[in-house]
Amino acid sequence: MLHLVQFRQLLKKGSETQGGKPGKVLKDEARHNFPVPCSIAICGGRVRGLAPDERTVAAQLSLAFRAALPEHGSASQHSSQEANAPVPLTPPPGMRVMKGGAEECLEEVLLAGGAAAPGRETHPESKSGSTVVLLMQEDGSPIEEVLGELRAHMVPLREDIPDDGPLSGNPLSQIDRGNTEVQKVRQIVVVVGDHIGLSTDEETSLRAICSRHEVAIHRVSLGPGCLLGSHCIVLLHHYFDKYLHCCPERLWSSKRAPRFPVPSAQ
């Protein structure tokens, strides 16, 4: 599973969706109608009706916030037939709002991926090392090298990916599928900043969270230049598809319950 956690940039300038890939988490400073930081989790494979323009994206995000947090905004719309009868808003498919900022999002993603929970008994299958965090930095290690190293420790590919598929010609994709002794990486979390980058305090907080959950963190780079966050996301998917996995379309065809339930309004 691949998650993207992006600091800042949401609603103020629109947002990017993840296409048909696994979920990503974005942060909003929530300075408009919400007195506390809020975040929105977008599961790209389940998003529907999202046109590729900033106005539509902003409208969908606004609807998600208003539906999930009625105490800080209008969570209902009035029927044309009965003006006084409120109709609860339905959040857009594939979007979930949670209270808290990027740090809280990261905590939840790490726990969902089986990272060690501080002060709790860890599930036997949730061993340290099963989750890896990649921090995007211009001075980090080349992403090709890092993904090549991670490749040898990834969970074996599913049987529905043919041996002559896009990964077959990649020498880094040749792993021992029968080796169960090596700790397998089951989740990769990528932290993406904006044009300013993470502050020293933000990076310190990020490393502290990873340390509490016994999760390794690597500084990786797409190159020496500064890129738009949306461009970084596109390039990240290219490298992940090339070196680690290919995501079949039917992965999102099943009507499974969301992994993270929408919090009830209180």
TrEMBL record:
Q: Which Pfam families match?
A: Methyltrn_RNA_2 (PF04013)
Start-end of Polar residues biased regions: 74-83
The Gene Ontology biological process annotation of the record reads: methylation
Region annotated Disordered, chain positions: 72-92
User: In the record, what terms sit under GO molecular function?
Assistant: tRNA methyltransferase activity
Instruction: Please name the InterPro entries in this protein's record.
Output: Alpha/beta_knot_MTases (IPR029028), TrmY (IPR007158), tRNA_m1G_MTases_N (IPR029026)
Q: Which keywords does the record carry?
A: Cytoplasm, Methyltransferase, S-adenosyl-L-methionine, Transferase
Q: What is this protein called?
A: Uncharacterized protein
Q: Which organism is it from?
A: Cymbomonas tetramitiformis
